[in-house]
Write the structure tokens for this entry.
Amino acid sequence: MTRLYLFLAVLFAVLMALPLVLGNYVLGIFVMVYFWAYVGQSWNVLTGYTGHISLGHALYLGVGAYATTYFAQNFGLSPWIGMFLGGFIASAIGLFLGFLGFRFGMRGVYFVILTIAFAEITRLIVSHMEALGSFTGIFLDFDPSFLHFQFRGNVPYYYISFGFMVVSMVVVRTIERSRLGRFMVAIRENEEAAQALGVNTFKYNMLAIAISAYMTALAGAFYANYIFYLHPNSMFGMATSIELILRPIVGGLGTIFGPVLGSFILSPLSEISRAYFSKGGLEGLHLILYGVVAILVVLFMPKGVIVYVTKMLNPILKPETARQGKRGDDADGR
Amino acid sequence: MLKVSGIDVYYGDMAALSNVGIDVNRGEIVAVVGSNGAGKSTLLKAISGIQRPRTGTIRFNDTEISRTSTSRIVEVGISHVPEGRQLFPTMTVLENLEMGAQFPRARKCLPESLKKVLDYFPRLKERLSQKAGTLSGGEQQMVAMGRGLMSVPALMMLDEPSLGLAPVLVSKIFEIIQRINQQGTAILLIEQNVFHSLKISDRGFVLENGRVALTGTGEELLASPHIRKMYLGL
């Protein structure tokens, strides 16, 4: 156990020191790694732990981004506060969706369709709302200051996104160890049995979706003030919903390190291949590359890459468990 | 202690139970037998609040519970061991057992309950840290029953505990059911294994096509020509 923590501490220190040696462009790639790891982690709270598949999580990302920006532009509210308001709005929407889904026992594909429908409806509403920039989107003015959540260069964004990711891991770890986490896993493994044992599954499903939506919305605020442009299609669209679930799936669902590992694999691939291929006039090729990686992982590592990484690292990091725990396929690095 | 009277349960437009009434007294073992699709599991689901009856009443210790939430029903002392074990496969045996005691009253006496369960099922002692999904069918049944006991129930409802088990294990499971009953827990047992279950039961109900076709003491039912012909093939 201590070796694992030592390893994580060293990793933490190295990542904290990276801005000292890396240039702006590479730091930007790391920002995307942390950003998508965080968003993936937020989605993981709902889908990874309770097993309810949301294919419309872009909805909460968009709500967070639009709400923060709207409050900032119209009321001069700092994004540092606006993002928490955005979180509450996203949670409210999530709870409404959850109420419809969980109260009326929507399972499997029906729940998935419900999540897609909510995201699409919101996309269409925002596309036709003058106050939210309708289909031309919103441009954010660049006015760097800490209060505005806007900065020159990537170093502050690097630390903020890194902080987001680390905090999300701590939050999910806390959830995992709590009764809430236990109940969420029970729901994922066998919702009916959990119910028969007296677990109020409706309540814990609602909690899970509220937390997940809230966390995702915070990332929206970051996105808005990093990219400076919001468009309904890119914020609420299906492509974003898919983008944000790929990393936890590739890394390993229902684990803390899964979304992070997945993001370290896919985000650089996405950024570099996008830059490389679009120079050669091959825009969109990176998406194909992406698809191939996703298919390979699903085919050969259906439980996510994390399972193999833990297996490889276990003898070094946890010598005591590696020796006796041959049967344990503990994937979450506990 | 439990009195179900005149309940109708529907799945959509299809009636699974019509006008069914059964009762269980303190300290009894009551069996509900019947063939596939007779509505046995539906009856248990109705009692534990998973499938709501359209009409009729379900009273437990003189309180109406047919509209009470499932979690509340577990808390007042009815535990439901569902058909096909329904464990949490990637949780350990211990975690599975603990899941059975997740409300204040049960959590308070968790260590004693655990001790009791391991007393009934000593085999589980060495399996505590093993994932439930890796156990054999018989061991899984033990975990399911143990998990049901963790809520310290006054009435334990077992849905097909002998399903898919080797004959030796079947006898063992029935023996343990009797032991649990002797310690003061009433048992409502649903079984396709008509002979075995009626033999250990004080009373029995025969469900056919969603109705109670026959009722009596265990011995009476075992001796009835109808049962002998339809269920025992004698």
About this structure: The mean pLDDT of chain B is 93. Chain B touches chain A through 29 residues (CB under 8 Å).
